[in-house]
Each structure stands twice: as C-alpha cells, then as structure tokens.
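hey can u run this one w/ ME8 bound, need the structure tokens asap thx
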Amino acid sequence: MNAAKRKTTYLTTPLYYVNASPHIGHAYANLAADTYARFHRLLGEDVFFLTGTDEHGQKIERSAAAAGMSPQAFADSVVARFQSLWKLLNISHDDYIRTTQPRHVERVQEILRRLHKAGRLIQAAYKGWYCTPDETFWTEGEIGGPTGDPTAVDPQSGKPLCPTCGRPLEPVEEVGWHLKLRDHQEWLKQYLKDNQRFIRPQTRYNEIASLLEQPLPETWCIARPRHRVGWGIEVPFDPGCVVYVWFDALLNYITVPWEIREKEKRTLWPASLHLIGKDILRHHTVYWPVVLRELAGLVPELGYDRDVPLPDMVYAHGLWKVGEQKMSKSLGNVVDPVTLITERLASQPFAADVFRYYVLSEIPFGQDGFFSEEGLQTRLTTDLGNDLGNLVNRTLSMIDRYCGGKIPPSRQEDLDAIGLRGLGDRVRALPESVRAAMEDLQFSLALNAIMQVVTLANQSIEQAAPWQLAKQPEKRAQLEGVLGALACTVRIVGVMLKPFMPAVSDEIRRQLACGDAAPTWEDAAHWEGRNAGATLIRDRAVLFPRPAPAAGQGK
Ligand code: ME8
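ok here u go:
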C-alpha cells in the first residue's frame, strides 16, 4: 500500500556544518529555498520547508578542540549564529533539524539496526584518501585537485589534493560498515534517463550522467571506527564504530518526515526538492538514491511498505566566489552576511530584502557568481531606489495630492481609452511569467519580469503626465483612470514580490491599504483589488532611502 496522494510541497536545504559562522553562501542557499517555499505558499500549496545543521564528524570535532570546547557546546554556540541569521533574513522554515537532536539520533540508529538485520550492511576495509573539510572519501583514481592532475600535491605537506576543493587529503586505512554501491549503478543510470528533471540544472545532470559511465567504487562507507572519529552517532550493534557524518546527515531528509507522519499523519516523503550547492551534488544524486534503494521495505513509517521513492528533484545551485576561489569557512575568505546587513546596509529599513534582491537577481540560478559590494549598491540605487521605490512613491504621492489619498477605481476595459492598455496587458501576464520562471527556479528571470513591469509603469507615468492632467478639470476622469491603473499595478507588483522581498511586499501592500491578510495568487490575478476606494495609509516609510552623502560630498 502506498501513501495517499501527496499534497505537501516538501523542500529541504543542505544541513550546514557548524565548524564556523555562516557566510553568504549559506545565506544564498537558504534564501533561494525560502523564496521557493514562499512562492509555493503563494500558489496556495501546503508547504513544508526544512533546514538545519550537520553537527557531527571530524571537522567539527577538530574545530571544537581548537576552541577549547566540547563538540556539543561548540555546536550549540554556532547553531545560535545560524538561527539568528535565519531570523535576520526572514527565513520561513517550518522545522529546523539538528543532527545531534535525539529525534534524529534515535531514528538513525533504528535505521542502522534495520539495515543490519536485513543483511544489507557489509563490514569492509577501506584504503584510500579522506578530505576532512569536505568529510569525503576519495579513491586513488579520483584524486588530483580541481585540475584532475593525479600527480599534483600540496607543496607544504606533499599530500595529494581533493578533486573538488583542492585541499590536501589524508591517507586512511580502516575497517567500517558499508553499503553496496556499484551494484546500484545500472538502475541509477536508467533512472536518470527516465527522469530527465531529477537533476537540475542540465549541466549538473550531464555531470552525473557522465560520472555514471565510469565504474563506481564497490561500496560506500556508512560507519567509521571510533578511534578515528569520536564525535558521531554510535552504531547500535557495533559500539566501536560511529556513523559516517554524510550518512547521518543525509538521513535527516527522512527522519523528519518519519516524525511528522507519526505526529501529524501528514506524508512529506518524497521531497519535492532538495536544494543544494553543486559542491555536494554527488552525495545527493548518487549516494542518497542508493541509500533510499537500500532502505526499500525497511521504513514503512514514511508511508511506503515496499520501495522508498526518490526525491522529485535535486537542484544544485552555483557557488559565490571571491576572486578565483570558492568562498568557504575553511578557506577563511568569507563575506559575513550579518555585517553586510546590519552595518553596510544600516541606512536601509528593508536591508535583508535588499540583500535578498541582490543575490537572487545578480546571477542566473545554477551558475557561479562573484560577490561584490559595489554590485549590491548598484542594484540598490538603480533597480530598487530609482525604479521600484520611485514607482511606489510617485504613485502614492500623486494619489495623495490629486485624489486626497483615496484610491480611484480602475477597470481593465477602460485602459485603452487612457492609453494604458499595454501596461494592463503586461501586468495581467506577470503572474504567469513569474510562475514559468520559478518552475525551473530561475529567480533572476522572475525578478526581471517583475522589474520590467516596474519600468513600464514608470514610463507610463511619464507618458500620461498626471501632473498635466491635473491642471485640466475636464481631464479629471482620465487622471483618476491613470492613477487607479497605477495603483493596481503597484498592488500586483507588491503581491508578486512577496516570495522575493517579503517585508517590502508587506509594506507596499500596507501603504496601499490592502489589509493584513497574506496575499494570495488570486490577488495577483485580479486587476482591481479589494482596496479600490480605500484611503492610503498615512505613515509611509520610504522603501529604499538614498544613503546620506559622506561629509564633504554633494552640495
Ligand atoms: O556540505 N557559495 O555543509 P556546508 C554558495 N554538511 N553556496 C555555498 C557556498 C558558496 N561559496 N559555500 C557553501 C555540507 N554554500 C554538508 C551538507 S546535507 C545533508 C550535508 C552552500 O556547511 C551550498 O548550498 O559545507 C553548499 O552546498 C552548502 O552551503 C554546503 O554547506
């Protein structure tokens, strides 16, 4: 028996390591996920958005030791920083999983017991290389740094290099518990062929499809000897071993649905989307599907007695770089999002939304990008200040000045007569353009569609010149028609911005007297909102104030 038809849109982010404070890369992944979650809520779907932290393993053990703290106390302190960043960025997750929580640990141990009992675990010796920053095993054939040169070594230690991050590898030789890997290669290859949208974007699909053309290692480690890694979940049937941190962390995607189904009778699995960075693609599209296949029939609590289905989609976003390098906690070249928002953008009442707009519009989702503060300031001044802020401010000020603050009615069929048919058509098409872009997580295209409407609306103001109409009493109806149409445009833009810039969206709709209710897709589909005839709110914040010129500058 399979679970009843699933209605919940279940999306996940990576569980971040707690070896150091979050940087803009982590912020980016969670902002993208948050925007996706909010967008699907706007569509009226039931959404469950999960994020959290990955708290076990050698890397955290070492960072805690360096800080003179116990791993748990160290993890607790870093988790607090992640959680306050998510608050600052307005991240709307429904649950936050920490891999050290009993609800996770107990289910991981139960899964291990069941796998062991079913005879699906192999005790195997492993000889090869280990990248501690990435917590990843590499075979002799895979080493060679990012250039792929197997003879490349770290000049200081003489050790070979990690093929993904380029840092020196450590030799390992140990006996642990493994799952079969190579036996799964053929069905996984076929699965990719049959499910072309399982891995997005296409470049990442191609990468894994070609990886699967080469033989995979025979097995994949899931538990390591305790004398190597002390900080991890104990293997219940072999206390001399602890669970390998990647196996532990990946399982969060089902330990939470398992718990939720028990408590709420709500079926979350399979995930609609695992949103990840391209650095952890292989773990999510090779090892994780293999784990799920090995769990067939063993976790009926998810709602499936036989096969455990794979997630609908794994989307791997690109990485933000500083210079030529990936930004990373271990490399120490990070941009701190908290400083950026609370200090650099201190003059902005909606600083978090400015940052959200910058990272989501700056690069096509899936590609790498270079973070620059100048780029951020440019987006703030041009797109947000000159275009969006200006449109809202002008429209509302003119409604104040010429209509005593009362929003004039507007009918779509009257737009021709006042020369705004083009604007009306574009606004009407906007929700669908945004939806189409969001289907493939193209946040920048979605924002671009919204900003094109903003630009057109500003042009329409210039053309219609309400200030001229206001001087001619016989043009009163036309003046009100134009301002009414602009009010509809601003309101719909405000609704469509909700997933991307939630606080700005709320403020735009508040100023337009739309009420406190969360906006719906229906609100965007209707030209005239329920606020027609209402009076604008008086206390209106400037959305994107220009920073005060530094002393000695300007006039
Ligand atoms: O890999 N640019 O955790 P992690 C953009 N614990 N995004 C970046 C980034 C950058 N420079 N650096 C990191 C782990 N990210 C594991 C995951 S999942 C079960 C376990 C983002 O702390 C990106 O989403 O290294 C990347 O995949 C993730 O943070 C890795 O975070």
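The pocket of ME8 is lined by residues 14-17, 25-26, 28-29, 54, 249-250, 276-277, 279-280, 319-320, 326-328 (CB under 6 Å). anyway lmk if its weird
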